[in-house]
Design a protein that fits this description.
By secondary structure, this protein is an alpha/beta fold. Helix content is about 45%, strand content about 15%. About 45% of the residues are buried.
Length: about 250
């Protein structure tokens, strides 16, 4: 399967950020892996135009489960497609925490996005309290069961494992911890989705940077990364893409 390096800009970036994308376009022009940038919605249309017919795809950071309607401030999956997106993130821990999103809500959004033709990055991951309580695998199992819709395929679904306690903190799980969770996730996907689960990409996210990317990408069942802050600058993100291509 082709590996995926995805950048989540979160609530960062205005027009000036487009210069970083120009640099990145040159840096990853010949890469053998898929590259994705999920900018804030205000930049999606412009960035999609800037990266058209290039090695970089674009995606949204969230979508509503409805096609349209009285949902002030929300964006539908169809709107993302209209803006040029091919992907969308659902269930990010910041959405789950800040907006109280449940597994059921994430599944509804994921289904809507899949129906619209988007590839969905479904985020899962445990908090520090859950890690310390030894319930990580139970949490991951519950989130996958509740957040990933039946009928999901390797073509329209990517799983992004992001331990909440490692996002933006500089803390990174050990190689053994990442391997344990990714192996567990692969087993869950294969049991539920068969061959589709075997080929479904599983990304790692949580303080991924150039200095640790090579080590992380060498772990079995790590098929790429969902990168936060390090995706904002080409000088930080391009080495991660290169490390993934060399894995």
């Amino acid at each position: 399967m082709r590996k995926l390096a995805a950048g989540n800009w979160k609530m960062n970036g205005t027009s000036g950020q487009m210069a970083e994308v120009e640099t990145l376009l040159s840096d990853v022009a010949d890469t053998s892996v898929d590259v994705l940038i999920c900018p804030p919605a205000t930049l999606l249309d412009r960035l999609s135009g800037q990266t058209e017919d290039s090695a970089i795809a674009t995606g949204g950071q969230d979508c509503h489960f409805a096609e349209n309607g009285a949902h002030t401030g929300d964006i539908s999956a169809q709107m993302l497609v209209d803006a040029g997106a091919t992907h969308v993130i659902t269930g990010h821990s910041e959405r789950r925490t800040d907006h109280g999103e449940t597994d059921e809500m994430v599944a509804s959004k994921t289904t809507a996005a899949q129906t619209a033709g988007l590839t969905v990055l479904v985020c899962i991951g445990e908090t520090l309290a859950e890690r310390e309580a030894g319930t990580t695998l139970d949490v991951v199992s519950t989130q996958i069961a509740g957040s990933v819709p039946d009928g999901s395929t390797a073509a329209n679904t990517v799983i992004a494992y992001e331990p909440v306690w490692a996002i933006g903190t500089g803390k990174v799980p050990t190689v053994e911890q990442i391997a344990e969770v990714h192996t567990h996730i692969r087993g869950l996907l294969e049991t539920r989705f068969g061959n589709e689960g075997t080929n479904m990409r599983v990304l790692y996210g949580g303080s991924v940077k150039a200095s640790n990317a090579t080590e992380i990408f060498a772990i079995p069942n790590v098929d790429g990364a969902l990168v936060g802050g390090a995706s904002l600058k080409a000088a930080d993100f391009a080495p991660i893409v290169s490390a993934l291509a060399s894995a």
